[in-house]
Specification:
The chain has 429 residues and is α/β, with parallel strands linked by helices. Helices cover 39% and strands 13% of the residues.
Length: 429
């Protein structure tokens, strides 16, 4: 019997009921080797997950980033239950919303006011609307991934269903290339409302890049937005703005701020955020949902008390050094590119010979799953991870490299890949 038998049966049923059988693209079967990997998880604890077939994994995906403390943490669960006994949501705001807003303004350098929403997409869409309203302009310059809303996704290859007029309001620029954004301002004088970017991409910003970007954006009368939905609460408590001492006008958070509970935020200068009271419509039924706020407060408290960021960086640096050493040992520099800062690092994949980058990715992914490691290449560290878990990851990576080496030597996946190939939604050209 296949060790993923229940997952296979469930996936067949799920695909009849929901697209891809999952509610999030990056959690669907297409990011793993179909029929030779789990498709559904039953439970989690700490840094481990158990699938519906009872197989156990050390997880470095962390639910795509939201798990910063660990799965099913008793302290966070307790805070949720305590609030649950009072109520989930009310007909007017809960006092806990004031408490969390106050905490955010304390720890985030640029945050003078805060608006809570639910998903990262909600927060970035709110930030863009504010920038357009504040400047009276319409064009946005973007770098990175900013969610599913029309304003952004229209600028990507996945723009079906987005009106052409909306798609034309977004211009892409190259991260770490100041000339790229300079050119956009020159080509679109007095038209760009805001520049929104993920401030930490790949190996992070070049020295002085974010400071120079801020000066340039303000010189052209635009708004600078840091999209820290991914980087927030992972590298430093105050995010990239704390790490690099550069304060944007608006900042967005999500993912890791509540250890898995659904909450996000748009924050920034008071004069900009106050426009929400003056006709800039940013309002959701569940923006004031109290269980997620209780989880966020407890998560932030734990991150502050437990030297979390020292641990994230220490463990991440062990991983980073380990994978660099393995790549050098097996001379895999052509196909495995080490990428990322310590708390969020791993491999990017390249093709070679007849093998595409997705072929290399699939061979790697298959072996990691077989060795009980959940990863999609780039990894997240949470407080439940230990040095032994990092070593288990490195041991599995070494075995994956041997499989990749074999595939390269025979210039084929024949006899190596047992399931389907990894097939992501966003593919590299």
């Amino acid at each position: 019997m296949n060790k993923y038998n229940k997952s296979i049966v469930m996936l067949e049923k799920a695909r009849k009921l929901t697209p891809l059988g999952a509610q999030t693209y990056s959690k669907s079967y297409r990011y793993f080797c179909e029929n030779n990997a789990p498709s559904f998880m039953e439970r989690g604890k700490g840094c481990r997950l158990w699938d519906v077939d009872g197989n156990e994994y050390i997880d470095f995906i962390c639910a795509l980033g939201p798990i910063t403390i660990g799965y099913s943490d008793e302290r966070i669960n307790g805070a949720i239950v305590k609030q649950l006994e009072k109520g989930i949501i009310f007909s007017q705001p809960s006092p806990i919303s004031i408490e969390l807003a106050e905490k955010i303004t304390e720890i985030i350098p640029c945050a003078e006011m805060v608006r809570f929403v639910k998903n990262g997409s909600d927060a970035t869409a709110a930030a863009v609307r504010l920038a357009r309203a504040y400047t009276g302009r319409e064009l946005m310059a973007v770098s990175g991934y900013h969610g599913m809303q029309d304003w952004f996704i229209g600028s990507t290859v996945n723009h079906k269903g987005v009106p052409k007029g909306v798609r034309e309001l977004v211009k892409n620029f190259e991260y770490n290339n100041i000339d790229s954004i300079k050119l956009l301002f020159e080509e679109n004088p007095d038209q760009i409302a805001g520049v929104i970017l993920e401030p930490i991409q790949g190996n992070g910003p070049n020295e002085g890049y974010l400071r120079e970007l801020k000066r340039l954006v303000h010189r052209h009368g635009a708004i600078l937005i840091f999209d820290e939905v991914v980087s927030g609460f992972r590298y430093a408590l105050g995010g990239a703005s704390e790490l690099y001492n550069v304060n944007p006008d608006i900042i967005t958070f999500g993912k890791g701020m509540a250890n898995g509970m659904p909450i996000s935020a748009v924050a920034g200068k008071k004069e900009i955020l106050e426009m929400i009271s003056e006709g800039v419509f940013i309002s959701t039924t569940f923006g004031g949902e109290a269980l997620s706020m209780a989880a966020a407060l407890k998560t932030i408290e734990i991150l502050q008390k437990e030297n979390a960021y020292e641990k994230f960086w220490d463990l991440g640096n062990i991983m980073l050094k380990g994978i660099k050493d393995l790549v050098e040992k097996y001379k895999m520099e052509e196909v495995l590119i080490v990428s990322g800062l310590a708390p969020h690092c791993g491999y990017l994949f390249e093709g070679i010979g007849n093998l595409s980058y997705l072929d290399i990715n699939s061979v790697y992914q298959q072996r990691m799953i077989e060795e009980g490691i959940l990863t999609v290449g780039i990894n997240n560290i949470n407080l439940a991870h230990k040095k032994r878990n990092i070593q288990a990851y490195l041991d599995a990576s070494e075995k994956a490299m041997l499989d990749i080496k074999k595939a390269i030597q025979q210039n084929s996946l024949k006899g190596i890949l047992k399931g389907g190939k990894v097939d992501p939604v966003f593919k590299r050209v």
